[in-house]
Every structure is written in structure tokens, then in C-alpha cells.
Amino acid sequence: MQKNKTITDSQFSTSTLLASLGPGILMAAAAIGASHLVSSTRAGAEFGWQLAWVVLLVNLLKYPFFAAGARYTAATNESLLHGYLKQGRGYLLMFTCLNTIAAIASTAGVCMLTAAMLTQFIPLPIDILAFLVLISSLALLILGHYQLLDKLTKVIMLALTLTTLVAVALAWQHYQGPIVTEQTVSPWQWAYVGFLVAMMGWMPAPIEVSAWNSLWLLEKKKTQTISSKQAIFDFNLGFVVTAILAIIFLALGALVMHGSGEVFSSSGAKFASQLVDLYSDVMGEETRYLIGLVAFLCIFSTTVTVIDGYSRTLDIGWQLLNNKQDCTKRLTRVMLLVSSLGLVLIWFFKGALLPLLEFVMTLAFLTTVIFAWLNLRLMTSETLPEQHRYGTKMKILAGLGLVYLVGFSCLFIYWKLAIQSS
């Protein structure tokens, strides 16, 4: 068995690489939801290309914190949660408590977005459709487990990526140059601080996704031998794909919608229709339902991925904190509880999609500082073998990332207080 593993490491063939892909692609699927289809597209539609460099910079500055999941697990064969516990029980407890809040909010956000896309096909109230989406997601996870999620996500991701590339290529072909009108405004105004923070909160995804990547990698290792090199390649591929697609979605909004005078509606059903219009305007009205289906499947896969990822981390977190044994039934109960509380949050917002997503993304940005610090602390800890710790370059990049996260968090809090007092 050890001999086979050595051959795998040295050959590192294309077929071996493709077979080992999974956790990184699942991470990309989790990212291409609200942060891409909503925030990136909306940034392009409202501000043109002005925020393109911000999107790339945010991805770069968050890289060390996301990479911790794959690197730590590849080095130790343990999840990030085990690493937090080694740092001290209080660190794992803090992560799990914050993760519980994030799980409920994020599940509600992606579920409502999925339900909004489903209104293109089924004329039912969005809260009822959200309930159906949750039931379908839970059935897929409980009956199909990780293996089915892994296979479906790769197909859906490929379909949406190809569709979006075609749409952007066609839009660029008919692009007449930048439109400068009274609708063209600068995002660098006091009034847009909330939008900027929300956009960056889930760009490319909440940082706690690094813990999901860690657990998915362990799950993948149960059925396949994966070397450290393969695990890191899988993560890097997924991360680069999310960054590129963020720019592509921004380009779609900038090329098709910017300068038209139209803005995205806060209504879930109306927003979904506008999103599909972006594609059908350049690919032809006859493609409308096909585009709607692909977009729905993409967001649905995000919902399934989010429920699975958060539930796994919550289950393992409380398991480690209470010295319990692994239990499939407990994971199912966690999924049911998170989904139920997420549905309650959806009912509270009553179909107002954009306000809910902005709330969720802002919450993600504010908690990101703590999650990022935990990952950096772990990847520079003496509990990790020296050859696997972050080097000077990664430490510098992570330091810049923390300064950016803390700085914008303080700016947002100050902005929020100023808005409330005025």
C-alpha cells in the first residue's frame, strides 16, 4: 500500500489529479452563490469595472486563511477543528459558537436565493419554495451522502461555468465601450460602505469554508489515497476558479446591465428574473429557460453544499467539545435543526432577498476576522511540524489580510453607528 502511494506522489498524472479533485471544487460550489451571482454581478451592474481590482485583491488577501484547511489536513490527517482543540478548548468553543450563528444565516441566504431562481419555473410563494428546497437538499444529503454531492457538483459547476463564459464572450462581442451617464457613480462614497462590506464578506466565500474543505478532504481520503501535493493542488484549483469566475460575473453585469438605468430588485422573484435576463439578452430569448435551469441547479448545489459543510463542522465541533463518538444520526439532526432555523429566518425577511443576503454577508465579514486569526494562529503554531508551517511570504500576506479585515470591520461599525445616529 505504501508503494502505491509513493508511485502516486511521483507520477502525479492528469488522471490521478482529476480523480482526486473534490473538496476544492465543492468549495468553489459553495462560493458561486450569493458572492458571485449576486454580489459580483451587482457590482458590475451598478459600478461597471470599478470594483474589479477590489474583487481580485480580496481573494488574494484571504488566500492564506482559506488555504489553512487543505494544508493543515494534508500535513496532519486531522481537521482544522482538531487543530483548534489542540490550541485550547476555548478556541474550538469560540469557533463553534460563531459557526452556529453563521450556519443559520448562510443557510437562509442561499436557500432563499435558490427559491428565488425556482420562481422562474414554479409560481408559488418564495417561502413555500424555500421549504421545498430545504426538503430536497436534506433528502439528497441524507440519502446520497458525500459521494453523490461530489459527483453532482462537478457537473453543475462545469455547466454554469461554460454558460457564463459564453454569455460574457457574446456580451463582449457586442460591447460598445463604457457608458458614462448620470447612473455611473463611484463606489468610493460613504453611502456605499455597507455594500462594499457585504460584497467582501462572501468573497470568495465565508472563511469558515476552510473548515469544510478540511472535513471534505478527510471524507475523500476514506475512499482514495490523496497526497499532500494533490490536496493542495485541488484547493488551489478551486480557489483560482472562484476568483476568475467572480471577475466573469462582474463582467457580465458591467457589459450588459451597467448604464442601462436598471437596478436589481430586492424582491427574490424579480431579482431572479433580472439575473436570467442578463444571460438571455446576449444568448437569445430562446435560451431563457435553459439558463434559468442551469442557474437554479448551481444555486441549489450551493445550498446543498452549505448545509452539508456547516452541519459537518457543527457536528464535529460539539463532538470534540463533549468527547462524544462519531454518529451519523447526530449529523442528520444537526442538518434538520440548521435548516429549520434557517427557514424561520427566511420567513422573518418575507421574501426580501437582497436585504437578507446583505445581512448574511455583513455578518460573515465581521466574523471573518476571528476565523482568519484562528487559522493563522494554527498554521504558525508549534503544534504543527515546522516544514508545514507558513513561511515568511505567507505570514506577510496573512498579516496584510488581517489589517484589511480589521480596518474595514472598524470602518463598517463606525459607518453603521453614524447612520443610526443621523
What report would you give on this structure?
With 422 residues, this protein is mainly alpha-helical. The chain has one domain (22-421): Amino acid/polyamine transporter I (Up-down Bundle). The protein is built from 16 helices and no strands. It has helices at 2-11, 14-20, 23-31, 34-47, 52-76, 80-87, 89-118, 126-173, 193-201, 209-221, 228-256, 268-283, 288-321, 328-349, 353-379, 392-421. The radius of gyration is 21 Å and the shape is globular.
What's the arrangement of secondary structure elements?
Layout (H helix, E strand, L loop, with lengths): L1 H10 L2 H7 L2 H9 L2 H14 L4 H25 L3 H8 L1 H30 L7 H48 L19 H9 L7 H13 L6 H29 L11 H16 L4 H34 L6 H22 L3 H27 L12 H30 L1
Organism: Shewanella japonica
Keywords: Membrane, Transmembrane, Transmembrane helix
InterPro entries: NRAMP_fam (IPR001046)
